[in-house]
Amino acid sequence: xxxxxxxxxxxxxxxxxxxxxxxxxxMVYGIIGMINFAHGDIFMVGAFLALIAFLVLVAIGVSAVPxxxxxxxxxxxxxxxxxxxxxxxxxxxxxxxxxxLAPLISAIGMSIVLQNYVQVAQGARVKPxxxxxxxxxxxxxxxxxxVRLSNIQIIVVVTTLVLMAGFSFLVARTRLGxxxxxxxxDLKMAxxxxxxxxRTISLTFVLGAALAAVAGLMFLLYYGVVDFFIGFLxxxxxxxxAVLGGIGSLPGAMLGGILIGLIExxxxxxxxxxxxxxxxxxxxxxxxxxxPTGILGRPEVEKV
Amino acid sequence: MSRxxxxxxxxxxxxxxxxxxxxxxxxxxxxxxxxxxxALGLFVLMIGVRTDQGPTGALVITTRxxxxxxxxxxxxxxxxxxxxTRRQANVxxxxxxxxxxxxxxxxxxxxxxxxxxxFALIVPIVFYTNRYLLDLAILIVTYTMLGFGLNIxxxxxxxxxxxxxxxxxxxxxSYALIAQYFGLSFWICLPxxxxxxAFAGLLLGFPVLRLRGDYLAIVTLGFGEIIRxxxxxxxxxxxGPNGISGIARPSFFGLPFxxxxxxxxxTFGLQYSPTHRVVFLYYLIxxxxxxxxxxxxxxxxxxxxxAWEALREDEVACRALGINTTNxxxxxxxxxxxxxxxxGAFFATRQGFISPESFTFGESALVLAIVVLGGMGSQLGVAxxxxxxxxxxxxxxxxxxxxxxxxxxxxxxxxxxxxRGLVATRTxxxxxxxxxDIPAAIVRDARAETPT
Amino acid sequence: xxxxxxxxxxxxxxxxxGLTAVSDLSFSARAKEITALIGxxxxxxxxxxxxxxxxxxxxxxxxxxxxxDGASFLLERLPEFRIAREARVARxxxxxxxxxxxxxxxxxxxxxxxxxxxxxxxxxxxLFGSRAYARAEAGAIDKARYWLDRVGLAERAxxxxxxxxxxxxxxxxxxxxxxxxxxxxxxxxxxxxxxxRESAExxxxxxxxxxxxxxxxxxxxxxxxxxxxxxDHIVVLDYGLKIADGTPDDVRNDSKVIAAYLGVADDELxxxxxxxxx
Lengths: 304, 452, 278
Fold this sequence. Notes:
- The structure holds three protein chains of three kinds.
- Chain A is mainly α.
- Chain A has eleven helices and four strands.
- Chain A has one domain (2-290): Orthogonal Bundle (ABC transporter involved in vitamin B12 uptake, BtuC), CATH 1.10.3470.
- Chain B has two domains: 17-92, no CATH class; 110-417, Orthogonal Bundle (ABC transporter involved in vitamin B12 uptake, BtuC), CATH 1.10.3470.
- Chain B contains 17 helices and six strands.
- In chain B, a hairpin with a 5-residue loop joins strand 1 (49-53) and strand 2.
- In chain B, helix 6 packs parallel to helix 8 (213-233).
- The longest helix of chain B has 27 residues, at 275-301.
- The two termini of chain B are 42 Å apart.
- Mean pLDDT of chain B is 82; it is low at 1-8, 17-22 and 447-452.
- By secondary structure, chain C is an alpha/beta fold.
- Chain C has helices at residues 45-52, 80-85, 104-111, 113-119, 124-127, 131-150, 166-178, 196-213, 224-230, 248-252, 255-262, 269-276; strands at residues 5-16, 19-30, 34-38, 60-66, 72-74, 89-91, 184-188, 216-220, 233-238, 241-246.
- In chain C, the strands form two sheets. A six-stranded mixed beta sheet of chain C has the order 6-7-8-3-9-10, with helices on both faces.
- In chain C, strand 4 and strand 5 form a beta hairpin.
- The model of chain C has no long low-confidence stretch (mean pLDDT 89).
- Chains in contact: A-B, A-C, B-C.
């Protein structure tokens, strides 16, 4: 029982990180119908930028952890957003009117570019960071097992909730959000009524990248280590989460993220840890085949 | 805004140099400045700062600001030049090639194919002493064969398969295991490996029948990864990360390639040389590739091949004409997988050792890039693309780290600037009066809009 | 003597979530006749077509197809390719669906796929060059040539289908459908975008198909010139309901039909409503 609760806590934490990345996938797919294959690598870039920014701050003497983290958060969000913007401008926008899978192929190319760019720039070895946020609370004990809720876990979940709330507000109440929803419904019509479609799409990528940056920072703090390959796996799992929750649906992305986090954690805890990635890929396949619209998505009817 | 509405100067403009004054304005400088700023933002931390593991194991940073400055400056200059030339002349790369050359090039395809084939046949003779080039040639032909196999699925049937490496792996591992446990010869194990791979193709094909485009691609990618993870973790069967080693080397129809008296060299009265085996391997893979090519060309003329191409063009219309598209798709997967399996079996016997590391997603991406670059279903295009890509890879061997970076960038560039690949026409499979090639713009391919 | 019925639609209803596209529709089409389905946009005509040809599965209802030789098919139970292959119902599409990157000849050969597959021994015999297959393919090419001649596209047989002008593409689609030797040919707006001369040619062509090949035709059309000229029987739909069913003369004068198409003047509204039964 205690072990189960611990896995629950761990799963929700991991799931929050996946959810933040999944939002990026779902927003982009909702607005222009493409799978941004490189989004996972944007998350990886965000994690690296956070790491480097932190090390720079320490080197110039800012050592108060909360202040440093705050600055790192802002800096990595801004710069990762810039990466997201650049990738869209270079690799996807020229293909807006090309055949349907051109952006996917381009995205695969961008994914390879980003991974190798980081590998060339920073070396192929893993980059460790000493734990910055320590401590936590013991919730309860039993059967010789203590269920712990660490501070970092609290921070991850709270940050995610705050961002989710902020983001939902943005989509539902602001003009940008309205433009995004209009573009999602009908891109041509949105352009005809005067919405700057290019800008709206760019901003969608930018926001998705910013959230991925936060996920990257959380990942760095939670696991304490990053390498250039974390993007691929996290990306696939986050994409699975987006599809599971219903592609195009924001709450779906978060729900899917939590579910995937829980499934992965439970699988590793109770079955086998080596095959946990197989579990993730299998869920992806099962969902795409049997439930392509996801849990919260809207069904599509094929028009003949 | 630029001051483009100024009255024209009296002097006639120079035909090719950009005019920097008057008509141009600040636009290009602004563009270049923005580009430089963006570059600065992108690279300031990632390139400007380098993290390494210090003596204590913790990370230590060093700065590379000169490198950063150089790169930002290069971006500024590059963007400036691009903005200037773009404004002065609407030149595209296609315009740089004179029309006469283009016309000549299009008629040349048949001769090019023949020349290519002749060259391929004499490679071992020409490069007999250069072991390195022979190995490269084997590699190129292997990937060409993989390209032929994937071509059936992606190029002809229009099913975007991102997990093709799975069949390569199934072929390699089933060959290795059968050869080891049952001690059968290469010529018996080869078809068996193909059958296993075809079976895997059917298994993969069944679940993805109703999927389209992106989703089909992702699911096939998932399958590819699952196969690799299973191979990596099922230690008892596959040896896990250590793979399978000691796979039997090929023999010349029973005559082993060694220096003994009943070896190949002794039997044919030649001085023993390890190159014999390499040459044999080369002709073996070349034969396999040529068979694959021949079968594919024949199938294109048969109803199944036409059904594949029709499937790619418009699946709904196929169903309306009574074609069981389920069977058509499954056949495409199975055939493509079978040839991938043959290639895998060859790979196993050539290396003598296989491990899951050889079967990553990167391989699938590479084969896909070859097929995409080669252009819709064209066999010659695949062969040329494989040569160019793998040859290019080898040329830049010293720049090991940058190779993949360039490869990814090339993929992006190709799909933006030359999405139809090298071969820009489709040759119809049957004619009433006379043969005419169909220009690429009309042909719908694997990447086309799903019609609604 | 009334002709045998080839297609009987009984109580067909098609619902998409909350939207009812076709509601309790019943009618029959007689063999060797041209039956037209008309009605304002959104009336449910193409939905009906999709149900008949198996692209949609009806929510409720029965669709029975009776061949002249007595074979009978329940279309609501069959997937679309079996309806085409076994029940021999062929169709064209509102937005022409040709294999654009393939030649006209190839398009017509694909229509004969099933027969050729059999002749090629499911590819195996064909791979090794069987003569039976070569003969079958020659026969298929002959049939293709025949239909290309009928639609006047024989000289362009080796051109890409996507390069044809719009009217020619429509004709090719009909030719392709006829290459499957259908018993029932379903045409979705065959006259769309055709000028008067082309429409007249189409009329002659469809009559010839009915008379020479004994194929029954079911067509959706907006062009009243074509409909009134060649139909033996007209069914009128509006908002998914059948509002008229009879000969062209019956339908032409039916007040419900006039109201549905032309609307009604304000001062006439009450009278017409009473007459129409609203």
